[in-house]
Amino acid sequence: MTIANPAVAHAARSDAGLQAAIEQHGNRIFDRIADARAPLFTARGVYGRLMDWAMKDEAFKTRLFRFVDVLPCLGSNAEIVRHLQEYLGDAAIELSPLLKGGLAVSGLAAPIVGPAVRANIGSLARQFIAGGDTKELCATVRKLHAGGFAATVDLLGELVVTDAEAAHYRQRNLEALDALAAAVQKMGPPCASDIGPDGVSLPRVNLSVKISALHAHINTTAPDESLAALKERFRPILRRASETGALINFDMESYALKNFMLRLFMELLDEQEFARRPDMGIALQAYLRDGPEDLDRLIAWARRRERPITVRLVKGAYWDYETILARQRNWPVPVWARKPESDLAFERMSVRLLEHADLVRPAFGTHNVRSIAHAIAETEHRGFDPRTIEFQMLFGMADPIKEALRAEGWRVREYCPAGELLPGMAYFVRRLLENTSNEGFLKHTFADHAGRTRLLADPAMLVAKAGASAGARSPAPVRFANEPPLDFSLPEVQQGFARALGRVRGEIGRDHLPCIDGRPVRTAAFIDSVNPARPAEIIGRAGCATSAEADAAVAAARRAAAEWSRTPAETRASILDTAAGLMRERRLDLAALEVLEAGKPWAEADADVTEAIDFCVFYAREMRRLGGFHPNEQVPGESSVTHYLPRGVAVVIAPWNFPLAILCGMTAAALVTGNTVIMKPAEQTPVIAARLFEILREAGVPAGALHFLPGRGEEAGARLVEHPLVDLIAFTGSREVGLRIAETAGQTVQGQTGLKKVICEMGGKNALIIDSDADLDEAVPGAVYSAFGFAGQKCSALSRLIVLEGIRERLMERLIGCAEGFTVDAPEKPRARMGPVIDGEAHRRILATIEEARRTATLAWQGALPDTGAEGGFFVPPTIFTDAPRDSRIAREEIFGPVLTVLAAGDIGGAIALANDSGFALTGGIYSRSPANIERVREELAAGNVYINRPITGAIVGRHPFGGYKLSGGGTKAGGADYLRHFMIPRSIAENLMRRGFAPDVED
Ligand SMILES: Cc1cc2nc3c(=O)[nH]c(=O)nc-3n(C[C@H](O)[C@H](O)[C@H](O)COP(=O)(O)OP(=O)(O)OC[C@H]3O[C@@H](n4cnc5c(N)ncnc54)[C@H](O)[C@@H]3O)c2cc1C
User: Fold this and answer.
1) What is the atom index within ligand 1 of the atom nearest the CA of 249?
2) Dihedral sign computed on CA atoms, order 801, 803, 808, 814
3) Whose CA is nearest to atom 2 of ligand 1?
4) Residue whose CA lies nearest to ligand 1 atom number 32
5) Which of 251, 294, 315 to mutate to test the pocket of ligand 1 (most atoms within 8 A of CB)?
6) How many helices and strands (H and E) does the chain possess?
7) How far is the CA of 343 from the centre of ligand 1 (A)?
8) Can you give the pLDDT at residue 473?
């Protein structure tokens, strides 16, 4: 055979020579496809026109594709017509008068319009689907075979949220292997695309698998466990493939799973049983900056193991997703920023593959004639048998190119998705986006009719011309940038966090005394802070301040108030920036401490630290904006300005559930606005509070401006609130305590010189509506996370899930299946998605609430608890109730634990009314794909933070100013532009500038 060995050198060739060869091959393909038009671009009738409009008008495209996305789950003709009108009937959309007229009256003819729309879009989608069931699929494979094309089969249904769905996906794969094996038996000799370089048939059954669909709860933070589970599920597929002589290919999915998938691939193939069989392949994505490195790693592994594999090189299907996600999280964007960079990487990786073609069979998954011609030129240049490589293309796309390649004697494999329309629709929408993408080769070729010179241009030249995309690895912060969360899918992050836990554990158990005027105060009593997952473990002891220390702290704060208020705003702001920097340096240790002291799982603890950093940076920036003098309306002869004064002495009373972020946010806001502050942390989390106090002092807050006062709420806290010399109380916590504080602070006592300002954030009984057309693949995990994240101990946590009647049963099944994967365990273990509740009191209270609810409502599901043995731990099982009476405790009162009540509503109006039937108004939201229903929620849902098509917890500083109204809070919005003003008093100064009829700057 003429296959290469890397040791075999081939003659060097100039860039110009390569380009000439590419143009020659490219032009040959173009000549062959000159008269052809890809089906999508020739679709007749109204749908062809729709695609035309979609390519011309981005707004219309979005609406059309969103409609296509929701269509399969619409249960009636009336629903189809309603959505059609909502998406496309808008006058703002420039449609043809005919279509617009048609949409306007379509409601009258729903029984005709509905089925017609479904049939038409269905048939459009089916262009890309090789078969609705195994029989159809096998017929397609047979037809392809007759035309000289090989196939790889992909079973649609990639998103699973329950283990039952994952098991079903595996079963379908096993059945497909059997059916395909039987089908190829009957097909006679292999077709030309099935014959490899040595003239021997390649595996004729080729199955592409989406690994994530085999496991509903992959946890990349604890990869070992998920890997073990996936291997277990995957082995039967590999065994069946060995028996049937099939090749199994791992499709590549999102970047978050990439390292995990590579590890799974290599570890499985390292197993004795699979060291030689079955044939295996994996897709690698050239749009990833890591692409070449991963390919080298894979090649080196294959060489060591002498394990032949197939690599399907693709550019990558999730470019927008990866880019948006990374930008949202302020992470380095993992994909190339410019299209020619991906094209260039594809070519470089193609060469690398060819250099190792003796061991790694190259498969090029592309429809781009330039990328194809490059692979051909490089193959020929090496003198390889053309059968060394194969081209892979998607079913229903670029058929003329496939034909051209076959005619030129190249092996071509079609990627054949099979399955029902509902899961197929997500795949279809991806294909529509790809076909209409402005960056896409197919659109340039078949719709825009771009010239060959442009289509065959060397990407290296285009990249050189444009310059490398700047800063994509470390995006330049745009104004305020949130601190990026840790990416726990990275092994080095996992190891770093585990080390931090060890380090912090070595430092626990110390005493943390109140500190007034920079001096520690010895107290008679102490409060033990314990690890809620192991109550015997003392994280630290806090000196318990009494009324006497509270009085001393107020006096000290009062003494320092004038000087701190005169400190320039810029100085105060830069102290916060310094504090943010210190927290950034110590972020792992701070988060690890939260794991131990507050029982937060890793990612939740990390989020609390990043939020604290964000508060410092954001409020520093806001104070720079608000400092100085702001002109009022001006007239000639007068200067009028407003500026902001601090209120004086501020008391900050913080909760334990965000032990760093909330304490830090309220303290930072009070300090930066020029108030002196007494920090009273929650009894359960004084150790993390002590760390914050040290950081703020180290950053430069003077001793008199900040005092640390751990103690009991009933004593030290109460004294601070009623103290006549306190001007401001910033409180976050329960409604009960919040209302008491508001009441006490409202009473003027002897010696008081001003009105007390209360900034008060309390609880919620938060509702999430699941509309009948919601995308349950997203809604279900979103609801589970909102309800059970940090054991439901967030004031924003979901406690009432309101479901539209029609989908109730299906939702419950998926909700429970998804909740099963929400692992409860000691939070220091990376597998834990949920830890314990905060203390024994909460533990007893929540369990009692569950017991009581069992008598009035139906217990739909309860999760399992970890076996903690003698260590105990305040674990409460995540619990879901249905059929709760509307006036029952679980339907009305805040539980602050992992208890979810599912309620049903007949229609959207009823759902909103149910959601609003609460004394609280904190967070709330909806999952829906109806623009009209989303609009109603925007307008009518009573919540300070309304979330649409996303979880209802996890507010981010600057992006989601946070806080509620009604009995949830005073509408002060932490992390928003209005927040700091509440900590200050505006003061206006007007000066008459006229002296004897003369004033400066009089304009005509
Ligand atoms: C047989 C087959 C199997 C496939 N399997 C997988 C798979 O397992 N995993 C997977 O992720 N994808 C897979 N794909 C999808 C594939 O990644 C896309 O179809 C492919 O990227 C389209 O590329 P192209 O070369 O055909 O077209 P082109 O039009 O040349 O390239 C389009 C691609 O360029 C990239 N791109 C677009 N805009 C930019 C930009 N601004 N900056 C940088 N890059 C950009 C994107 O990757 C986009 O998809 C497969 C494709 C085929 C044909």
Assistant:
1) 8
2) negative
3) 365
4) 440
5) 315
6) 34, 30
7) 9
8) 46
- Distance of alpha carbon 856 from alpha carbon 885, whole angstroms: 7
The residues carrying an active-site annotation are 761, 795
Helix, strand, coil % over all residues of the chain, rounded to 5: 50, 15, 35
Q: Strand pairing partners for 335? A: 288
Strand, coil or helix: 67: helix
Contact 971, 964 (CB under 8 A): yes
Q: Is 435 in the pocket of ligand 1 (CB under 6 A)?
A: no
Instruction: Note the Cα 271 to chain centre separation in Å.
Output: 34
- Distance of alpha carbon 922 from alpha carbon 767, whole angstroms: 9
Q: Which residues of 118-134 are buried (b: 16+ CB within 10 A; e: fewer)?
A: beebbebbbebbbbbeb
Residue where the block lists tokens 């999952």: 927
Residues 6 or more apart whose Cβ sits within 8 Å of residue 238: 248, 268, 273, 274, 278
The finding on whether 367 has its CB within 6 A of some atom of ligand 1 is yes
CB 159 within 8 A of CB 169: no
What global pTM score does this model have?
0.93
How many A from CA of 315 to the centre of ligand 1?
A: 4
* pLDDT mean values, one per 10 residues, the chain (1004 residues): 43 82 96 74 61 79 90 91 86 57 66 83 87 94 96 90 95 96 93 94 96 92 94 96 97 95 97 95 98 98 95 96 95 96 98 97 97 98 97 94 96 96 81 83 79 93 77 52 95 96 97 98 97 97 98 98 97 98 98 98 98 98 96 94 98 98 98 98 98 98 98 96 97 96 94 93 97 96 98 98 96 97 96 97 98 97 92 96 94 96 98 97 98 98 98 97 96 96 98 90 53
Residue 322 beta carbon below 6 angstroms from any ligand 1 atom = no
Give per-residue pLDDT as tens, 881-892.
999 998 999 999
Question: Cα(458) to centroid of ligand 1, in Å?
Answer: 18
Span 174-221, pLDDT tens digits:
999 999 999 999 998 999 999 999 999 999 999 999 998 999 999 999
Ligand 1 pocket, residue 768 CB under 6 Å: no
Sign of CA dihedral 551, 553, 557, 559: positive
Q: Is 283 in the pocket of ligand 1 (CB under 6 A)?
A: yes
Ligand 1, residue 336: give the atom nearest the CA.
43
Cβ distance 294 to 352 under 8 Å?
no
Q: How far apart are CA 368 and CA 659, in angstroms?
A: 53
